[in-house]
Design brief:
- The protein contains 21 helices and no strands.
- α11 packs across α19.
- The N and C termini lie far apart (about 60 Å).
- The chain is mostly helical and about 375 residues long.
- The longest helix has about 30 residues.
Length: about 375
């Protein structure tokens, strides 16, 4: 009986957890609080933080044979990131981007954060492929960050990269407003933009097809992400596959979020996460995201000047690809300056352009490194 009780006791977490695991458990509990009590993007943050909790209470769950190990294989094979893009395309209205093609410029401007972090990472001691995988965090696009890290063979740092990317996506409402307000005047934030022109059904159908052809001919490596994004949008706009559109944007999307979120959280075991390298990645990711937000706003200010004050610079911040969160933040900051200002649909143009731009930036890195 004594031996049985001893064996049972040694199977409990009290005998198997290191101090690092305890620290990560408290981090997970803190993130769960933000997800549930503060509602900071709970669809992302709740499964990520719970995956973090599980792996630090029971590390074998992420080892071969463990449940979350098989979830993670779907990340490693880049299946889940591509399916997320399918759902995003099915959910998102590309009309504001089609109605205002200048939005592409704002989406492109926000990608400067990606390349700024790339060069900073190299200066901080990371090799070129690691730097590329870290830099893409600047797009605030979790699926693309996972996709590129796996394609570049950076499995060892994928956990910190993914957690940083998804964390910054979740914290968009906290990180972006101070930057936006610091770079714009109250008069600029009050600018009201003209109503967007109506977009025909033909334009909506042709857009995803043309973008797929053009981008995938130039950068074929973007096909898994961009192709799924445009396919999802074609489901939405064609009007002939309503069942597929509803499945991709609802049931499938939520299933994939569960698998992706918990597996990403499960990469944050104490042994893998509590390192100096992780801190560097988190810092670089924040710099990249802040830089991307700033360059988007600054380019918006330039377009404001060139158009005689017809463009509100705040929509430039939506050029990062956290869709539709970044567009909502543009609307919120604009409404704080003038409650009658409605920027959401205008901001959705740069926001969608940012999704495409981040996928293109990932394709550029893969082309550079011959992946």
């Amino acid at each position: 009986m004594g031996e049985t009780l001893t064996n049972l006791a040694h199977q409990t977490a009290f005998f198997n957890l290191a101090w690092g695991n305890v620290i990560m458990v408290f981090v997970a509990l803190g993130l769960l609080y933000l997800a549930i009590a503060k509602e900071y993007e709970p669809l992302l943050l709740l499964p990520i933080s719970f995956g973090m909790l599980l792996v630090n209470l029971y590390p074998p769950i992420m080892q071969e044979g463990g449940l979350l190990h098989y979830f993670f294989l779907l990340d490693e094979w880049t299946i889940l990131p591509s399916l997320i893009f399918l759902g995003v395309g099915a959910l998102t209205d590309f009309g504001p981007l089609i109605a205002n093609p200048k939005s592409f410029l704002l989406g492109a401007a926000a990608q400067f954060g990606v390349f700024a972090a790339f060069f900073m990472a190299m200066l901080w001691g990371f090799n070129d492929m690691q730097s590329a995988a870290i830099g893409i965090i600047g797009g605030a696009d979790g699926p693309t960050s996972i996709f590129l890290a796996m394609k570049l063979g950076q499995r060892d740092i994928m956990g910190p990269i993914a957690v940083a990317a998804y964390s910054y996506m979740s914290l968009v409402p906290i990180i972006q407003p101070p930057i936006m307000k610091a770079l714009t005047t109250e008069e600029e934030r009050k600018i009201k933009m003209e109503q967007l022109r109506p977009v025909s059904k033909r334009e909506r159908i042709l857009f995803p097809i043309i973008v797929t052809i053009v981008v995938c001919v130039i950068l074929p490596s973007t096909a898994p992400l961009l192709g799924m994004l445009m396919l999802g949008n074609l489901f939405r706009e064609s009007g002939v596959v309503r069942q597929l559109q509803e499945t991709a944007s609802n049931a499938l999307m939520y299933i994939v979020v569960i698998f992706l979120g918990t597996s990403v959280g499960a990469t944050t075991s104490a042994e893998a996460f509590l390192k100096a390298t992780t801190l560097k990645i988190v810092v670089l990711g924040l710099v990249a995201f802040a830089f991307g937000t700033a360059t988007g706003v600054l380019f918006g200010k330039l377009m404001c000047k060139l158009t005689g004050g017809k463009i509100n610079p705040l929509i430039g911040s939506a050029g990062v690809s956290a869709v539709p969160m970044a567009a909502r933040v543009s609307q919120k900051v604009g409404a704080e300056a003038d409650p009658t200002n409605f920027l959401l649909m205008h901001a959705m143009g740069p926001n969608v352009a940012g999704v495409i731009g981040t996928a293109v930036a990932a394709g550029v890195f893969m082309a550079i490194f011959g992946v």
